[in-house]
Amino acid sequence: MKRIFTARWLGLACILSLVVVFLGPDLLSLTQAAEKPKLTVWWNKGYYKEEDEGFKKVAEDFARDNNVTMDLTFTIQDDLGPKIISALIARRVPDVAFCFFTDWQIAPKFAWEGKLSDVTDVINDLKPRYIESHLKTAWLYNNAEKKWSYYSIPIEAQALGSHYWKDLVQEAGFDPDPKKIPMTWNEHWAFWKKVQDNLRKKDPVKYGKVFGIGMTSSSRATDTFYNFEQYLLAFHGEILSPDGKVIAQEPKNRDAIIKTLAFFTSIYKEGYVPPDALTWTDADNNVNFNNKTVVMTPNPSISIPGAHFFSNKENYYNKIGSILQPTSPVDGKGYPYLVSVKPIIIPKDAKEQVLARKFVRYILGTKNFTNYVTASNGRWFPSFKDVAAAPFFHDPKDPHVPVATEQHLKRETRAFYYSYHPAYSQVYTENVWGKAMSRVITENWSNEKAADEAIGRIQTIFASWK
């Protein structure tokens, strides 16, 4: 009996030996895979496939070089913003997150609540490379710990320019050269009105539904508050002081708010803006421009011509023009350009804090990030001086990208108000200025009454942030 038992065990041992011989390498691989750290990255889906492909390659290279399992997902910003917010509230977060709405909707609020990692160590490594106005947007207040620090990592930005169809301007009887577009305030807007008038007079059937100005005016679009606050600076108005106090109610600023609101509502009521602009989302001014139902549209990036670069180079190089904003109606001078700076965040509850920082440093290396940001064809301007020095951003043959380069490097720029106080992120979320426009246009309020309601709402929001 003992010999039979021993023989059975010897047979089993032989079988196990054969399993190890033939499957050993695979078993080892499985063991190593189980031991690999996993990095979870949520990234905003790009507008062009080249952006996503470029980022995916960088992420794969990092995973290979660092023996990491990479869990990378791309999501459009309208879905990704709420997804990140829900994750932060539930404390079930990714290790790294990047969304186009993080700068105004996520980072200020959740830094305030103490739910973002302090990333001063990463910022200090990158600081010599930063464009100063971009870096300032990462300095946020943590109310849980009662301190200011760096809670996000800026990587790219956009600022307000305008794009127009050269052929429609020419059809209206004007020189379409960007240098010939009037750039003093009153003359500038009168020019686009005249283009519309001339087109409709020339051919009412063909141009009867073409509008001179594609101005987003809805409470659904972030473009609305971007445009409003940029033009508020043209009227020399301020809403917050640099130390984060509400000053919109001061006579000078209230007057500027009323005048800015009157500018938006008057061009709409006069019929120079498409009627459905009151319900536009951020994509709709792009759509209307591409359909040639508007001649010109202000837009906080050069995404409009950028899209044509991939689909119609004749449009990109010859038919679309890009310009900056007209001078102030107050003194005829320039005014600061607001920069919307898009940051990466590392949640405080992220499991792989060290690895997340290593990954961010890797993707923001000069070569890697230059390849990534240029894949957007100028939609985003880099937050780093060394990347901004790349020939791509200074090509004299390109009619659009150098316009944005001049804006970011040669003109005065400043951050949005959320950098002054995180409570202002709620002002953006509620789209106070879009609601004010609707009051005037659809409910026949006076500009003064709508402005006072908006100012009162801002004061109420700030009073609740204690």
Description:
- With 466 residues, this protein is α/β, with parallel strands linked by helices.
- It folds into two domains: 36-158 and 341-415, 3-Layer(aba) Sandwich (D-Maltodextrin-Binding Protein, domain 2); 161-338 and 417-464, Periplasmic binding protein-like II (D-Maltodextrin-Binding Protein, domain 2), CATH 3.40.190.
- It has 21 helices and 13 strands.
- The strands form three sheets. Strands 1, 2, 3, 6, 11, 12 and 13 form a seven-stranded mixed β-sheet that branches.
- Strand 1 (38-44), helix 2 (49-66) and strand 2 form a beta-alpha-beta unit.
- Helix 3 runs parallel beside helix 4 and helix 11 crosses helix 20.
- The radius of gyration is 27 Å and the shape is globular.
- It starts with a helix and ends with a helix.
- 46% of the residues are buried.
- The model is unreliable at 1-10, 12-16, 18-23 and 27-33 (pLDDT under 50).
Largest sheet: 7 strands, mixed
Shape: globular
Architecture of the largest domain in CATH?
A: 3-Layer(aba) Sandwich
| The number of domains | 2
- Low-pLDDT sequence parts: 1-10, 12-16, 18-23, 27-33
The rounded distance between the terminal residues' Cα atoms is: 83 Å
How much of the sequence lies in strands comes to 5-15%
Tally of contiguous helical segments: 21
Structural class: alpha/beta
Got a strand count? 13
Radius of gyration: 27 Å
| Name of the CATH superfamily of the largest domain | Periplasmic binding protein-like II
Q: What is the residue-averaged pLDDT? A: 92
